[in-house]
Amino acid sequence: MAINQPIGIFDSGYGGLTVMKEIVRRLPAYDFVYLGDNARAPYGNRSFDTVYRYTLQCVKWFFEQNCPLVILACNTASAKALRTIQQNDLPQTDPHKRVLGVIRPTAELIGNYSRTGDVGVLATSGTVSSGSYAMEIEKFFPKLKVHQHACP
Which domain holds residue 113? Predict the structure, then answer.
C-alpha cells in the first residue's frame, strides 16, 4: 500500500471514531477517510443480508475514494459481512485491496487482560448471535470462558 493512499475506516455510526483515533496515533504518516453510516444505523438488529449489503456498498465507496485498505470498525459489520466480503467479493472485483475487521485483533489481546479466566462481551444482538467473538477468542485463548450479552 502506498503511503499516499488513504486508509478507509467504516462504522455504522460514531463509535469507529475511537478506533480511528488509535490507528491515526499508530500510523501518523497515513491519511484516512472515515464513513459513519448514520443514515442506516444501527446495524445491530438487522439481518445478515442487510448488513452485508450495506457494508459492501460502503466498502465499494471507499475503493472509489482510492482506499486500498478498509477497516470495518463496526462489530456487527465485522461479525456478519467481513468474511463474505473477503472470500467472495474481493477475489472477484478487487483482489489487490483488503478489508479487515476489529473482532480478530480484539480477540488476540483480550485474554491478556483477564485475571479470572473469564471475559465479557457487550455487543449488539447481531454480533452476539454471530458467535464471532467467542470463536475468535477461543483460537487464541482456548481456556478462557466468554460471557456475551446483547445490548440494545
Answer: 104-150
pLDDT attached to residue 34: 98
pLDDT per residue over 109-126, tens digit each? 999 999 999 999 999 999
**Sign of the dihedral defined by the CA atoms of residues 40, 42, 43, 45, in that order:** negative
97 and 112 in a common domain: no
Q: Is residue 1 included in any domain, yes or no?
A: no
Same domain, 56 and 115: no
C-alpha span between 86 and 144 (Å, rounded): 28
Give the per-residue SS3 of the chain.
CCCCCCEEEEECCCCHHHHHHHHHHHCCCCCEEEEECCCCCCCCCCCHHHHHHHHHHHHHHHHHCCCCEEEECCHHHHHHCHHHHHHHHHHHHCCCCEEECCHHHHHHHHHHHCCCCEEEEEECHHHHHHCHHHHHHHHHCCCCEEEEEECC
* pLDDT value at residue 4: 81
Residue written as grid cell 456478519 = 80
Q: Tell me how many domains the chain contains.
A: 2
